[in-house]
Amino acid sequence: MDKNVLNFIEEFKKAWIGHEFVRLILTNPLAEADAVTRIQLRQVKIKGQEKVSFVFEYPNKQEVKNFSLVESVARLTSFIGNNFKNAHLYATCREVQLSYSRKMKSRLTIHSRVCTSDILSGHDKVKIRLLNLEGNQYLKELGVITDAFQIVQSMQKKFKQISKYIETVDAIFKSSDLFEKKDISVIDMGSGKGYLTFAVYDFLRGHHDKNVEITGVELREELVDFCNQVARKCGFESLKFCRGEISSYEVGHVDMLIALHACDTATDDAIFKGISAAASIIITAPCCHKQIRKELHVDKNLKCIVKYGILAERQAEIVTDTLRGLILEAYGYKTNIFEFIADAHTHKNVMIVGVKRKNFKGKELFFDQITALKSLFGVEHFYLEKLLARNKVGR
């Protein structure tokens, strides 16, 4: 048998027996293999016994089977090189990767790394902790955790926000065609101090084993310089930050575009750039809705809805974000609008997500709905709609 395969299996056994195992991922299925696109190995405790949980991922479903260490070794040995060309082991203090070239020549690499996820074993259930504290350098540099890798008391809410955000990104990512891609480009517009930008970078590289390049765009030069320094300290070579405004930044090619808490029409600028670039994923979390607030002109029975200032403001938010969602749908995105974290942690908690569809039909229905909604609330001018029309973005 291939010596590299034997060494990889030994590394797996050593990590498991030494309680250093985090997870193992098999990717890059061979053409002649079955429909399984990816297998993840996790640790689970069932009736007091530790088992290796194999999560078999198919295009439209998942299957979970639990095995002993001996059974797991046998299955891994048969899968590697026969069904999958890439095996990636994450232990608490190292990574081990086995990959095959086009001519099926194997290569084994071992290097130290801070793992970004942790397995928490429970009764008959596996819980994946996507954001780990131990050894997390970027969270320490950003002031979220201490030198002892404990959460700073004043940053408890921020940590919960980051954790929830990563869980959300994970679900969105798995629902898109990017899940099957190896190389991914991301732009985070209005990245601020970079809390979420760093987390997405580390998560996509560590948890999903992707070659990801991320650019954070931020207007404040002192934050750009700070984030670039942190990226260098953490060895995040494909993460960079640059100074720029959302409205004027040239996006080019991008697979995932993110704009969180961009004020008023800056969210529309970001959505416009994502649609124009045909990004597979567009993630926004709007902040304030001044443009539509000024445009609302309702009569008859609807007047009572906007009689009071606070309710008029909330109605403007609802109308604005509904129009944004409908425009994303009209341009071929499966769209969802939801609260991604409770008000207790942040009041800027509504997220608009668009995932690009394939061969989408029926877009005119959404354009009709946009026209009807504008008419109902007396809206003559909607910034995002005009921006797309002025730049002749094809529908």
Report a brief summary of the structure.
Helix 4 packs across helix 5 and helix 7 runs parallel beside helix 11. The protein has 395 residues and is an alpha+beta fold.
Description:
The N and C termini lie far apart (55 Å). The longest helix is centred in the last third of the chain and has 22 residues. The protein has two domains: 127 residues, no CATH class; 254 residues, Vaccinia Virus protein VP39 (Rossmann fold), CATH 3.40.50.150. The chain is elongated, with a radius of gyration of 24 Å. It is built from eleven helices and 16 strands. About 4% of the residues have low confidence. Strands 4-3-2-1-5-6-7 form a seven-stranded antiparallel beta sheet, covered by helices on one side. Strands 12-11-10-13-14-16-15 form a seven-stranded mixed beta sheet, with helices on both faces. The protein has a two-stranded antiparallel ribbon with strand order 8-9. The protein has 395 residues and is an alpha+beta fold.
Strand order of the largest sheet: 4-3-2-1-5-6-7
The number of distinct β-strands equals 16
Radius of gyration: 24 Å
What summary fits the major beta sheet?
Answer: 7 strands, antiparallel
Q: Total number of helical segments?
A: 11
CATH topology of the largest domain: Rossmann fold
Proper CATH architecture of the largest domain: 3-Layer(aba) Sandwich
Instruction: Give the mean pLDDT.
Output: 88
- Structural class comes to alpha+beta
Query: How would you spell out the order of helices and strands?
Result: HEEEEHEEEEEHHEHEHEEHEHHEEHH
Helix content: 25-40%
The CATH superfamily label of the largest domain reads Vaccinia Virus protein VP39
Shape: elongated
Total discrete domains: 2
First-to-last CA distance: 55 Å
Low-confidence stretches: 114-128
Query: How much of the sequence is in beta strands?
Result: 25-35%
CATH hierarchy class name of the largest domain: Alpha Beta
